[in-house]
Specification:
The structure is a homodimer. The first copy, chain A, is mainly alpha-helical and about 90 residues long. Chain A has five helices and two strands. The first copy, chain A, has a two-stranded antiparallel ribbon.
Chain lengths: ~90, ~90
């Protein structure tokens, strides 16, 4: 059983996934919209979204027809709290 | 070529490696001293130290006979800077 902070950090350890979060920080987007600027296929983006969703960093509204992805910043607070301990160095 | 922030986050995505950093934040330690409380073999701890060293999170003084490991918090500043962008959520 992987702890939640480890799962969050592993999900963030990829530049594409961090770029997806940055885009979602400006508002909800569909998978197709997310795939556009990355020059990646929808299935490739979907794989990254699964990792982000598993880590609790995004939520997806499966009820809405366009299934928007939304940023869920909760796990980032845990990262911020952890790194705060090292700010004095 | 993996970017430095991804390399740092991947190195941090392990509870043992974060525990090693926490101990080094209180002062330099040898590999043997680091291995003690983890109930891990020295080679197992050495593997984790290699990942941390590769990410620039620790330095090792190879000149000193006891080869102390020291925290190098530089890459953590990049993590703190990145996560700061999400504090408003």
């Amino acid at each position: 059983m992987i702890d939640s902070l480890s799962s969050t950090l592993a999900a963030l350890a990829d530049p594409t996934r961090r770029a997806i979060l940055a885009r979602l920080s400006r508002g909800a987007l569909s998978v197709t919209e997310l795939a556009e600027p990355f020059d990646m296929s929808v299935p490739a983006v979907s794989k990254h979204l699964k990792v982000l969703e598993h880590a609790g960093l995004i939520t997806r509204d499966r009820a809405a027809q366009w299934r928007p992805c939304e940023l869920h910043a909760g796990p980032l607070k845990e990262v911020a709290h952890w790194v705060d301990e090292y700010r004095r160095f």
